[in-house]
Amino acid sequence: MAFEFDIIVVGAGHAGCEAAAAAANLGSSVLLITMDMERMAQMSCNPAIGGVAKGQIVREIDALGGYTGIITDRTTIHFRMLNQSKGPAMWSPRAQCDRIKFSAEWRNELELISNLSMWQDIATKLLIEDNSVIGVETNLGVKFYSKSVILTNGTFLNGLMHIGKVQTPGGRISEPESKGLSEQVASLGFSVARMKTGTPARLDGRTIDFNQLEEQASDEMNYKFSFVTDHNKYLQYRKCYIAYTNEETHNIINQNIANSPMFDGTIQSIGPRYCPSIEQKLVTFSDKPLHQLFLEPEGESTIEYYLNGFSSSLPWEVQYKAIRTIKGFENAKIFRPGYAIEYDFFDPTQLKHTLETKIIRNLYFAGQINGTTGYEEAGAQGMIAGINAHNKINNRGEFLLNRNEAYIGVLIDDLVTKGVDEPYRMFTSRAEHRILLRQDNADIRLTPKTIDTGLCSDERKTKFLQRRNKTQDLIDYIKNKSISMKVANDVLNKIKTSPLKQGTKLYNILLRPQVNISDILQMDPDLKTLTDSIQGSEEILASVEIECKYAGYIEKEKSVADKIHKLEEITIPDNFDYGKLKSISFEAREKLTKIKPKTIGQASRIIGVSPADINVLLVYFGR
């Protein structure tokens, strides 16, 4: 057994798995330490990947050479492209996955990486020497040494679960908490605080009357997450369902609010505002007569269901009684009740954009310990930490993504610049340039960077070049191909839009709001023949339509992004003394000294730093 590695990753959740895979695939010898090798990348809450903005992140992870998208495609049992009634910047893929198979697929992939080792244990102590991390010590007393350590402990750091008055130490149901690391990290000068999240009860599908629920089928189009997956259907798809709470449900919950640890003062930590518990919903939205719930299967063949929207930490008896008042659930049995969990996290403003800590060299934090929530946000951080840990010990440059390049860039910049005051979740509204950061073009944006890092396989590179070239070829064809008035009007009349008075280019017709790419295919058989021969043509055509219809907006957004990005080119020395700039506000001096922004652009995004303060910095640095 080797006891020396290039990189040690602590925790095999979504952040840890992506970090370990990225670093190992780049050539580092990696040790992945986990409490349970049977639960790698465990989906401890909803077994779903993607959603609004999260789906864009998964596609970005995939474009960077990560595994989340590939494994999601292999284990998908229900797929929907959300927000298609809105503009393409808002379209977000989401997949319901088989929970057990998702974790098993992750382990299979990790076992295929030859220089990635695993150790089942609990890391309890960092080994520090000369203000640098040199390894970890485990609960079994084993010392492993390394050049870098990446902590991805998720909700396990001093985790405490709540079900009514019952409190159980643990990082997940039936799994122990991790003790020791938080206390040591705090003693090293890090700011440590508490957060809270929760999950709903799991139901026995054999006891549910599905006839009383609203069916929600998968999308028919062949969507998938990964740009290298050849097809999107490995498992049998299953239906999801919609249910609703009612007055009786609300009465039972309201009568027992005093028994909720969220409201009796037991839980003091910060919870997610955008994903509240059912009891929090009833308090916040007391005027609403009902709340929508989503019943979602946990796997391809299991009878276990997840009741999305009914997160709770109420006593199990109250949860059970309230669930049985919902139409269709009158005879429902539960496998286990919902619970809330409190855990330690570290203030992410203590990190560099590489996710290396500012206090201890070669120590990286990724995932929920940085105050985020969600598998997707965690996986993205893991990739960035893994790449940068490898790069640093090999004297390569920092791998950074700007806000105009990726949602991952927005995520990390928000964390290290602004910090968090609640569990951070990515939304499309957080990105200033979201028309540039669409889910359909993640490979165009990021795969060239993947080629540069060395994470791009030959297969990925070939498929990327083919897809990029075919997309551009189709755009050029549509821009240059003329169509006669008669042929075009046959289709335009069918879709009830004004006919042409003369022939024109296909491109000009596609710019009409009422016309979509399928209408253009009807006008030109040659184009249809061309696209039918392209693998994955549905997604390529969707990208072609977006690039054509929104070309003006896209170019304008690129121009704006380029102007803003110029502020990122003005660097600030690491140890610059803001105290000597008396012309900026005291609050700005205090915030700038704490966060130590690398550039004027980053400084401009710090809460408490005004435009006037930025102008002072620009003058001082000669701009």
What labels describe this entry?
21 helices, 4 domains, Arc Repressor Mutant, subunit A, 36% helix, FAD/NAD(P)-binding domain, 7-stranded mixed sheet, Elongation Factor Tu (Ef-tu), domain 3, 9-stranded antiparallel sheet, alpha+beta, 623 residues
Descriptive report:
With about 625 residues, the protein is an alpha+beta fold. The protein has four domains: about 5-195 and about 345-445, FAD/NAD(P)-binding domain (3-Layer(bba) Sandwich), CATH 3.50.50; about 200-340, Elongation Factor Tu (Ef-tu), domain 3, CATH 2.40.30; about 455-560, Arc Repressor Mutant, subunit A (Orthogonal Bundle), CATH 1.10.10.1800; about 570-620, DNA polymerase, domain 1, CATH 1.10.150. The chain is about 35% helix and about 20% strand. It contains 21 helices and 21 strands. The strands form four sheets. Strands 10, 11, 12, 13, 14, 15, 16, 17 and 18 form a nine-stranded antiparallel beta sheet that branches. Strands 1, 2, 6, 7, 8, 9 and 19 form a seven-stranded mixed beta sheet that branches. It is globular.
How is the topology of this model organized?
Blueprint: E1 4-10, H1 14-25, E2 30-34, E3 48-50, H2 54-63, H3 68-75, E4 76-82, E5 92-97, H4 99-111, E6 116-120, E7 123-129, E8 132-138, E9 143-151, E10 160-163, E11 166-169, H5 181-187, E12 192-204, E13 214-216, E14 240-244, H6 247-255, H7 278-284, E15 292-297, E16 304-311, H8 316-323, E17 334-336, E18 339-346, E19 363-365, H9 375-393, H10 407-418, H11 442-453, H12 458-480, E20 482-483, H13 485-494, E21 504-505, H14 506-510, H15 517-523, H16 525-532, H17 537-549, H18 551-565, H19 586-595, H20 600-604, H21 611-620
Parallel strand pairs: 1-2, 1-9, 2-6, 9-19
Antiparallel strand pairs: 3-5, 4-5, 7-8, 8-9, 10-11, 10-18, 12-16, 12-17, 12-18, 13-14, 14-15, 15-16, 20-21
Helix pairs in contact: 1-9, 2-9, 2-11, 3-4, 6-8, 11-12, 12-17, 13-15, 15-16
